[in-house]
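User: Structure tokens for both sequences below?

Assistant:
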Amino acid sequence: MRFQTLWEGRAIFAVVLVLGAAGYALHWPWLVALAGGAFCFCLNFFRDPERKGSQDPRDILSAADGVVTEIVEMEEGEFLKRPMRRIGVFLSVLDVHTNRMPMDGKVTYMNHFPGTYPGPYLDARHKEVSTKNEALTWAFEGEKATLVVRQITGAIARRIVPWRQLNDIVKKGERFGMIRFGSRTEVFVPLDFVITVQPGQKVKGGETVIARMP
């Protein structure tokens, strides 16, 4: 466990511990058991294992754990403003939610999008989630290419935590942030990159190669 990742869940852990203490004081074993289960769930959610992926500069690593939901060619209209290939990964509540650098690079762009409406957010697997839910877009400039990565919140708990700042130099596989609970991460790569994953495939952030430079 990394302290920085666990610290992001401090309020949740505090509530769970208070519930457990209250159940113990009131002699309510069901509440103690409920708090114990919730504590174990939170420990599992905020786990943050070390990863060691390919160090070949041509290999692009997944930015997140989860399942590849789509690989589509489309216009990246926020930063680079040109056709790219978008690789979308859905993160369930059982996945590691730390996001990692897909390649060595410099943070050249960060933009927070608050979402389009005050009501319930869309499920992270919905086709319109990229334009409706709260999101944080990053651009990472490497020696030979620039990638755009988008962190998108899901429908349950919605909190994006950035751990890097504009102009930071970040190495491949290093953590740059996390999303709390169900969510989605998108990586935009140039069209001439060779895609090495397919929809439905399980990937690990900082470990699975999702694309390769030509």
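Moving on to the next sequence.
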Amino acid sequence: MSEIGDAFVTALRLIFTGDPEVLAITARTLGISCSSTFFAALIFVPVGCLIHFNNFRGKRLLVSIIQTFYALPTVFVGLLVFITFSRAGPLGGLGILFTPQVMVIGQVVLISPIITGLTISALSGVSTEIKDTAVSLGATRLQTVRTVLLEARYATVTAILVGFGRALSEVGLALMVGGNIRGFTRTLTTAMSLETSMGNLELSIALGLILITLALIVSVLVNRLQQR
């Protein structure tokens, strides 16, 4: 028991003294997760709007499929991305396997259903009177979409934050396509997995505490936005 206590003390010392390895891993994790969330939001918030504002056959089925993919296994996404960017894959010529770039692509795929589905839910929660009022005042289709999206801005930002939290905490995808290369593709989750297997509990705990803190910050932000 004392060994675990000593490990926690050492972990806290690593954090508060600004250990270079801990800081580098944390910065890399935030860089990859923020990048993937940015690109996923840039692409899939508009996709969610497109689905919500158009009526077509099979719309309910499509939304149900998107919601089913909320729990898409990270290792399955990792497998698909690995096959796509491996030397024998269709995009293998790009040579980006085991790089941060392919990790960003994989995380975009992973969180795209979450951002799309929650954006649709956010827009569905806006009163139809707002849309009808905008149309009656002569708003164009694009202006109407902008008005409704602005009304649902807090819920939409919540969708993006939930996607970020998912990207931040995943491990299977990062291991499969990133390779857990020290100083290049190693993230908080993959480093924790490696260091724990090597018996380096101090570093694992330090990284775990940082990961929990980041997850807690995301959770607090989501709760505050939901209250609004």
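User: Anything stand out in the second?

Assistant: The chain has one domain: 2-227.
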